[in-house]
From TrEMBL, chain B:
SUPFAM superfamilies: MetI-like (SSF161098). The keyword Membrane applies. Its main location: membrane. This is ABC transporter permease. InterPro entries: MetI-like (IPR000515), MetI-like_sf (IPR035906). Belongs to the binding-protein-dependent transport system permease family. CysTW subfamily. The chain crosses the membrane at residues 12-38, 65-91, 103-126, 154-177, 198-219, 255-277. Residues 68-274 form the ABC transmembrane type-1 domain. It comes from Bradyrhizobium forestalis.
Length: 271, 287
């Protein structure tokens, strides 16, 4: 009697949890699939399902020079911001990861704070400071602003990779007579490299996608891709944007697949 | 361990390596925020007259307070939806084999790395008058005229929940992975049903993950102004857009600065409440 009751009870629990989980996973994945399907429409509207399929909007994309220009700017800024984030972030991670001092913990909180503070407020603040000291907005101010909001990802992933490093490895290397620099190059760096790459990847993606900082720190001549797309969407619902979204979704899937191979990205973000 | 001089300890590096980033943050992050605060304490746009006029204006203006209130409420609604939908994903993750685990993680991860504009655009396509929901309901004969889904609170909440879901799910997966599976069996063999075991054992033990997820989701949801403005449309105004309008369109920098500071403080207050809860919950479930 009680066994039967418990089974029914257990089944009801598992059923409810599984159904909600599947619905949630569908909600997560559906928007990307919908955009991909709509981007192949042969019609002029974003009607779903599309009346027919064609590659016309991808062909249209080929000639959209405004979008090309914006994409190039976004790519250049993201590459510079990622490079700067890695240089500054990895060094800082080495310093704070194994230190339990108060200053190390305070620095850690400081370096992580751009993740929770509203980026728009930071963008405005940076613009005010730059105009106060007479530095005009330019690609340089963009790179600086993006680096502030992207460096936390590099610091966090590098610190996590360093935390898994066995201290005995470093001690044995030192006992065997290796210098600190040699140990760093031959032992530490190879072991934390996947962590650094994962952090750099997330930093790059978040810079490429950044709107709030770019809104304030770009000059009129520097159009950025997500801002261009946002403004296009505010005005008219253009199917070209669907094709561009399709390209971005496919590129993201491809990059994530590569990163999963190189760095084990999924395990890294859940441990 | 603290007694050994840092230079002798081969397993750690000097704090000097943090100096470049610390300096960079001091100049380009701390200084701008201080400057923002300084400007917010001025009554005129030129920044000559000290005063609390901007804050008084905000705190006595029903419109401004309404924007702040609806922003904080929006964050709470999105966080609740993410928790209810995200927890079962994390639960399912712990019950399936490694192959399915990787698939679940990648499904959760993809939106996090896909452009926010693209994800928001998708919701415009789904929620629009000719969108997938209206088209389906109309072809099924449930409704005659299209429902208004875009530019509504419901639309903004569901779109934001999807956009921020990874921030909730990833910490939950980590937290559930740390729970000893024997506890589950022990509870069941002692006669507690699955539901009871879930609410009395699994949920309390995963509280650190719940709180971490809620903090990240809440902070992201109230600051996500692309999704707010595109799905919410012109009628719904939230703090980020309010700030942007004052700063960019109206060029009222001191008031925009005051909005920023109030918004920053609101975010910090929520984060510190969650952090305190997190510390308490670790004492509770960390045995």
């Amino acid at each position: 009697m009680s066994g039967r009751k418990r089974t029914l009870e257990a089944i009801s629990f598992e059923l409810v949890m599984t159904v909600i989980a599947v619905i949630a996973l569908v909600i997560i994945i559906a928007p990307s699939l919908v955009v991909l399907i709509v981007s192949f429409t042969s019609g002029f509207s974003l009607r779903f399902p599309p009346p027919g399929y064609s590659l016309r909007w991808y062909a249209e994309l080929w000639n959209a020079w405004q979008l090309h220009f914006a994409a190039k700017n976004s790519l250049i800024v993201a590459l510079w911001a990622t490079g700067l984030s890695v240089a500054l972030g990895v060094a800082a991670a080495l310093a704070i990861s194994r230190s339990r001092t108060l200053s190390a913990r305070l620095l850690d909180s400081l370096f992580m704070s751009p993740l929770v503070l509203p980026a728009l407020a930071f963008g405005l603040a940076a613009l005010m400071l730059f105009s106060l000291v007479g530095l005009p907005v330019s690609p340089l101010t963009l790179v600086i602003g993006h680096t502030v909001v992207c460096v936390p990802y590099v610091v966090r992933n590098t610190v996590a990779a360093l935390a898994q490093l066995e201290p005995t490895l470093l001690e044995s290397s030192a006992v065997l007579g290796a210098s600190r620099l040699y140990t760093f190059r031959r032992i530490v760096l190879p072991l934390i490299r996947p962590g650094i790459i994962a952090g750099a990847f997330i930093a790059f993606m978040s810079s490429f996608d950044n709107v709030p900082v770019s809104l304030f720190l770009r000059d009129a001549a520097t159009d950025m891709l997500p801002i261009r797309m946002w403004q296009d969407l505010e005005g008219k619902l253009d199917v070209t944007i669907a094709a561009l979204s399709g390209v971005l979704i496919i590129a993201t899937v491809a990059l994530v697949a590569v990163m999963e191979r190189v760095t084990g990205l999924s395990r890294r973000l859940t441990s | 361990m603290g007694a050994a001089p840092a230079s002798r300890d081969v397993t750690s590096y000097g704090m000097g390596l943090a100096a470049p980033l610390a300096l960079f943050f001091l100049i380009f992050f701390v200084a701008p925020l201080l400057q923002l605060f300084w400007l917010s304490l001025h009554n005129d746009t030129a920044g000559l007259h000290w005063g609390l006029g901007q804050y008084l204006h905000f705190l006595t203006d029903p419109f401004s307070l309404g924007v702040l209130g609806s922003t904080l409420l929006l964050g709470a609604e999105v966080t609740a939806v993410c928790l209810v939908l995200g927890f079962p994903i994390a639960w399912l993750y712990q019950r399936v084999g490694p192959k399915l685990q990787t698939i679940i993680i990648l499904i959760v991860l993809l939106p996090l790395l896909t452009s926010v504009v693209v994800r928001t655009f998708a919701w415009i396509v789904i929620l629009g008058r000719q969108g997938i929901i209206n088209a389906t309901l109309q072809s099924l004969g449930v409704i005659d005229t299209p429902l208004k889904l875009l530019y509504t609170q419901f639309g903004v909440v569901i779109a934001l929940a999807q956009v921020q879901m990874p921030l909730m799910t990833l910490p939950l997966i980590t937290a559930l992975g740390r729970i000893d599976p024997n506890l589950d069996d022990a509870s069941c063999s002692l006669g507690a049903g699955s539901w009871r075991t879930f609410f009395r054992i699994v949920l309390p033990l995963s509280l650190p993950g719940v709180i971490a997820g809620c903090t990240l989701t809440y902070a992201a949801a109230i600051t996500a102004f692309i999704t707010q403005s595109l799905v919410g449309g012109g009628q719904m105004l939230f703090m980020p857009m309010y700030l942007y309008q004052q700063a960019s369109t109206l060029q009222n920098w001191p008031f925009a600065a005051a909005i920023s500071i109030i918004f920053l403080l609101a975010v910090l207050a929520v984060v510190s409440v969650f952090t305190t809860l997190g510390r308490l919950s670790r004492g509770y479930g960390g045995a």
